[in-house]
Fold each of these.
Amino acid sequence: MKLSWEPIDLELRTTFRVAHGASDVRRNVLVYLDEGVGEAAAVPYYGETQEGIIEYLKSVTGLGDDPFDLDGVLSKRPAGSRAARCAIDAALHDLWGKRLGQPLFRLLGVNPANVPLTSFTIGMDEPQVMAEQAREAGYPILKVKLGGEEDEARIKAIREATRAKLRVDANAGWSREQALQIIPRLVDYDLELIEQPLAVEDVEGYFWLKERLRALRVNVPIFADETAKNAHDVVKLAGAVDGVVVKTMKSEGIREALRMIHTARAHDMQVMVSCMVESSVGVTAAVHLAPLCDYADLDGPLLVKNDPYRGLEYDGARVVLPERAGLGLERR
């Protein structure tokens, strides 16, 4: 199988701000394995760059010629860029489906009608700016980026602007003490869940936080995102969080993302499938997993002006999977 790649600069519709910084362009890489295609998202706070992803891809040799030996091919990926390893995985799954003439969701045995409604992301900004964006978005579910000094004012302004369901994502922006102080106040604004309140490596902090929130009778669900990169991480978090966020860019692809979902279910945890700032290539790959999940945060293509492919479609907050073979992508 021939491996090749193409750098792609995704222009964002609005400046995207999270606790780690802001960007107007995301410099990703499209990866091809014969006629299969995947995407590597260069996420700065994961230490990924477009240049680093391409350097990794140059080092990959000997993946073999059998696209049906999924685990065998993926085991030949060298250690390195998670995003690049994910893109190879996605391209392989796309190729698998195309060679069999079936959409991936059929090969996975899932029902595309069971995809949860997706949220739409409101990036960090001044409270009134975020409130106006929330009002204009018109989505029934909003994911609000927090992790700064004005967090309660941000949520207050948004809640005054909309009755949409609100999910909060702190992107590891709070300390233990900050989380314990602000979460009981935020729940007054009727939140559906809170994502990644603590530092990435602070697994014990989630047990600490759960115990203290329980003592305060604060019952908002807590989900781990950056702290849960693979199935092993899910096991470590069992009993400390209510759910985990699955992203193919973290898990290095669809194969490990499936293991994360099944591991979470075995530990009575809920699952949200999500994405980075990605085009329809990366997000469509993730959508094939969505029928297995409780929540979806798959708005990446909605944030991008120059999406290079057609794949998933949006009917408001409803996500529609393509019926075409493989991931179901078409070049624009």
Amino acid sequence: MSWTWRYEGPDGSPVEAGPDAPPQPDSPTQSDAESWVGEVWRELLAAGVAQVTLFEGERKVYGPMGLEAP
């Protein structure tokens, strides 16, 4: 199973990240997916992503998780 992030707007609706967003890798583990989003969250926010939700295949693991700094 692959771990992926769904990009969402502030209202939770799915959004496409802008062209400057880093490409999302196919992460083989939850840890890999979490590490990746931890490295690029600022770039995702700048590309129009307000929050993300983590999925393992079709199963929602957790989220939404806002990308705005507290």
Amino acid sequence: MPFERSSGLLLHVSSLPSYGGIGDLGPAAFAFADFLAAAQQRLWQVLPLSPTGFGNSPYAAQSAFAANPLLISLEYLSDRGWIAGERIAHLPGRSGAVDFNQVVTQKLPLVEEAARNFIHRHSGEEWSRFQDYCRVNGSWLEDWVLYSVLRRKFKAAAWNQWPDELKFRRRQALDRVRAEHAEELSVARAIQFAFDQQWRALRDYCTARDIRFIGDVAIFVNYDSADVWTHPELFELHQDLSPIRVAGVPPDYFSKTGQRWGNPLYRWDVLRQSRFAWWVDRIRRAHSLYDIIRLDHFRGFEAYWAIPAQDETAVNGEWIKAPGAELFQHLHEQLGELPFIAEDLGLITKEVDALREQFGFPGMRVLQFGFSSRGAHLHLPHRFVPNTVAYTGTHDNDTTRGWWETAATPVEKAAVEAYLQPDANHSIVWPMIRTAARSVADIALFPVQDILDLDSGARMNVPSRPQGNWSWRCPENVLTPELAAKLAALTVVTDRDKAEPEPGQ
């Protein structure tokens, strides 16, 4: 679908300078929305909001439907009477990188305490809203709370290591868990309800300021997730529920052995028999959270790299065709117009382009990629078409300043100098931002690290590094009125604001 000409900023919720050691949906989120509005930005892109698994990656989630409890604001729960102020007074502060171990140890128990307080002490009106929430979301919520409670019971062991009666979801065993852990299940439901209430308050606040959310949907799900445990028939699994083949990408210029991601592959034939019901539910859920959905690894909807599960590398995989067109047609029939952005980075074939164009999804272009050779010039604005989303960089890239100072080759630097003509001190960050904003791309998006001109120390993720990612947080008091005014001026002059055209135009 076509999008209005606009621009926005990429900042995950966990990167906000919130109280409690990790960004959340509290005051810092609303302050960032105020900055976006002052800067005439109309889009806020976040990463998946799901509960994270190994490595704290939002792309390695324990559920494709549930939300991350760590993103809940304890300050706002305290304001609503769910927990006393003195109980949260000694949490980590608003500055510094996220220490996930510390946050899980110190913040999560307080979120659970607040939810337990709500279960035992609540107003009639709030309880009614909670019951409505559980009824509307029951199709995924009950599976999630069972999974999360059992995962804690077995000390974070993956579901395939649980006793067979639970691993294979035998009814009597699940009924026994429901009876023996009724309060824990209620607490887990209340946590999801708390997130929902805070997220909807933030969305309403942003909507009133003409700010829309872009959120990510990763094509694959984690093996150790509520989704695979609940719906093993939808995935390529042996009778013992171990994976048959897993996802990844083949060897390329960057890796001689490719990338073995390890996600179980879908049984698309089984999904087709249900008219892709699980995917319909998943996108319906995503659309209830976001205004626009970015489909991560869009290439996999046309064909995916299937690797034998026993292999340690991606070398011996093969391309398997996926029913992407059929899936998107069913999604359109069930949910209406699809507000999708296709993450079409990497080695993209004409078949992938044809699939994206068939449904009118905009593709992505990343300026950092455009300067290495003539073959990369499709990432430069003179090759753009309007139905495009232009980035200076993404969460997987170094910051633009970091790329320029540590990774850009002499060839790339010469190309940047010729194309951008950077200012006297050879800073290329704002020239890159201005170039993306001036382009014909309908949407221009900038990581907050770039508008702050930060170096590699502010990088969010290094894809080849299994640990130490996702922890960057925006410093306090750096998103100033002066910076908002600078960005707003660029937004207005490049016609990405919401101003009506002048008479006669």
